[in-house]
Amino acid sequence: MKIETIAIHAGNHIDETSKAVIQPIVLSTTFERAADGTYPSGYIYSRSGNPNRTLLENVLAKLEGGADAASFSSGNAAGMAVFQSLLPGTHIIAPDDMYHGLRNQLKNLFAGILTFDFIDVNNTEVLQNHIKPETGLIWIETPSNPLLKITDIKKIVEIAHKLGIKVACDNTFATPICQQPLALDTDLVMHSCTKYFGGHSDLMGGVLITKEKNDWWQKIRQVQEMGGAIPSPMDCYMLTRSIKTLPYRMRGHVQNAQLLAEFLEKHPKVERVMYPGLPSHPQHNIAKQQMTSFGGMLSFCVNGGADEAKRVINSLRLFTQATSLGGVESLIEHRASVEGPDTKTPFNLLRVSVGLEHIDDLMADMSQAFG
Ligand SMILES: Cc1ncc(COP(=O)(O)O)c(C=O)c1O
Fold first, then answer.
1. Smaller CB count within 10 Å for the chain: N or C?
2. Helix 215-227, helix 75-84: angle, nearest 10
3. If you average pLDDT over residues 277-287, what whole number do you get?
């Protein structure tokens, strides 16, 4: 089946009792046992499993072409489950511009348990020099947040797998509509469902999707069930509902982002634009090979430094100054000021989550803000 069909059908099922076309939200935390003590429905207690979560995990696994999916209460909870599933002493290699929330999680919560290096994973020599006997995981994020750097997924997987190292890819910026890392042989895909899957800036969620149901996956499932950072039935329902329109929303995001990137690149007040769909992007050729389209996120640096960047933000009327991304409304953010002192983000950089408003209105707003 094509991805549009999967998005609509794989997360829904007609209720057998009421014949409701859309699945009911099952709020019950517990499920009745049969006389012999077994659980005929397959459900026991909602932390272990719930019908809305089963449907959500089914559609998420199918969208990424995975064997199984485990959903969480946020993207960071999904990332944390990966790190908690590793043996103490495991070494992780992660990008130097890894999403700052997960970088801070590693540095603050896992120091002394795991070891890690944040490096330029695209530099093969640097990568190989950092691999140790205890390296168990290479974490990649492509396109990266907020520099939109592209990592060559196939190349990383080749290097890692020769040495028995697992590869996990944060695919939040791309979504499975634009890029499918499991098809390029990564072991795991992670998403913040808070972003494009939710799509309306009104829920938090996260997911891990595995290529194979192996021992590592069993451990991740244990972290999910025993740790209990699960999404509520209502959030699972809201997510499966939003996912039905994901392929069509992504088309709009991609189209608007490409046009806005081209517009900004020509603007005299813009120093440079970071968008993988632009031929000027340093890894445009890798992006073309591994992505089917280039996503809805872009960053740009404003001539005149941080003060001018902040002036532009405050002059915009349609783009809301707020963190997060992937909603139907356009958001813009001065990224360096939220990322903390070890940020790699230039101070004149603005990150844009390009929404689904008409592109003419978005360009007109940018024009008036630049003055
Ligand atoms: C690329 C990326 N990964 C992970 C996360 C964490 O997701 P959440 O905020 O749902 O915990 C985010 C959030 O901004 C993100 O942008």
1. C
2. 120
3. 98
Q: Are 311 and 368 in contact (CB under 8 A)?
A: no
In this structure, the residues whose C-beta lies within 6 A of any atom of ligand 1 are 74-76, 99, 101-102, 141, 145, 170, 172-173, 192, 194, 204, 206
Candidate CATH numbers 3.40.190.10, 2.30.180.10, 3.90.1150.10, 3.40.718.10; the one for domain 248-370 = 3.90.1150.10
pLDDT in tens, 26-66: 999 999 999 999 999 999 999 999 999 999 999 999 999 99
CA–CA separation, 267 and 370 (whole Å): 9
Do residues 153 and 142 touch, judged by C-beta distance below 8 A?
yes
Q: Which CATH class is domain 3-243?
A: alpha beta
- Give residue 288 CA to ligand 1 midpoint distance, Å: 24
- Name which of 296, 284, 286, 292 is nearest 258 in CA terms: 296
| pTM (global) more than 0.90 | yes
In angstroms, the CA 146 to CA 143 distance is 8
The domain segmentation of the chain, as residue ranges, is 3-243, 248-370
**pLDDT tens per residue, range 82-92:** 999 999 999 99
Q: In terms of Cα–Cα distance, which of 98, 326, 58 is closest to 204?
A: 326
Mutate to test the pocket of ligand 1, among 72, 83, 109, 145 (most ligand atoms within 8 A of CB): 145
Give the alpha-carbon dihedral of 27, 244, 207, 221, to 10 degrees: 60
